[in-house]
Amino acid sequence: MIHDPDNLFASKFYVLEDIYDKKILPFFSSDMKVRNKPSVDDYVNLWNEWESSVEQLSYDKCHKFWLFMLHHFSLHTEKKLSERFLKLPATSGNNEIFLQEKKDVFIPDNLHLKRLFEMEKFFVWYPQNLAPSSRSDLSDLYRKIGARSVSECICTEYPLLPNVVELKQIDAANVCNVRVLVKLILGFLACSSLKMEPNKRHEAVKGLLNLSFFEAKDSIHVSYSVSLSSGNILTKRANRMVRWESQSSKFFTQMNWHGENAGLVKYATYFSEVISEGVLLENHDHVAPLSELIRLAFLLKFNDEAIAFLMDSKNLQIFSEDDDFLSSVFGSTSI
Length: 335
What we know:
Elements lengths: L24 H6 L9 H14 L2 E3 H13 L3 H10 L2 E4 L5 E6 L4 E2 L3 H6 L15 H13 L3 E2 H4 L1 E3 L9 E4 L7 H14 L6 H12 L2 E5 L4 E7 L5 E7 L2 E4 L4 E5 L8 H17 L7 H13 L4 H10 L6 H11 L5
Parallel strand pairs: 4-5, 8-12
Antiparallel strand pairs: 1-3, 2-3, 6-9, 7-8, 9-10, 11-12
Helix pairs in contact: 2-4, 8-9, 8-11, 10-11
């Protein structure tokens, strides 16, 4: 071929620009029908050779290969990659990239899980200093050819909490202002893209209203596990500080979270995620935006004026049906 822009095919083809004067190159192209550059098929075949002969790739080769795929991606490319690629690159702490089976390489769509499993080297590879838009495009490419998101492959387990004797029941006010929290959630359910009907949004918050709150002396852990094709199961534990057990209508909170580094932000984050997941059991796609809203409200200490301004800034409001519902639950106190 005439050109090898990425300098990857010297062992497979005669690259004529490296041999002949550039003045004669048009002759090879026009009269002898020599191909100008490597094709997508050439790159796919090259990857398959690497896959069968190399356990680790250099950063430079991986970078050139995947940027080429990004720039030449099409339905044809997707089909070729899906059919032929058995392995994908996993991240490494140095400039070498490990090749792993597709089912054992994951897209890091959840930063909490990424940090938890970052030493396992099973996340798909991204070039250094890659622009956010290109990173998103590369994630889409990986997903289309068979890599899965880590959040959809994680099995979450909740270890048993201590016996109730070791727990202290507390007032909900020790954790949050439930009245203001419910008002905020109702505004989100009514005015976000959900546009939930009044009876449905009232039903959604009833589980929250029926909770009994308990404080635990020990950390409240969650276990996350990933099954690999080898049969191995990788498990990590993380302190999530709070837990909502819907079947028993109990909310457990860690007693000593104030003492941890960045404790307030961590607690607000975990609290907002648990509340959002508990309220939006059938609308999981909306958990993230509601969680972000609740986290901000927690950091604002559920102050009435601050939350009213927050709701206005997000174009959230409650309606007369919600006012009546809140009054029936909390009395006629001004909301």
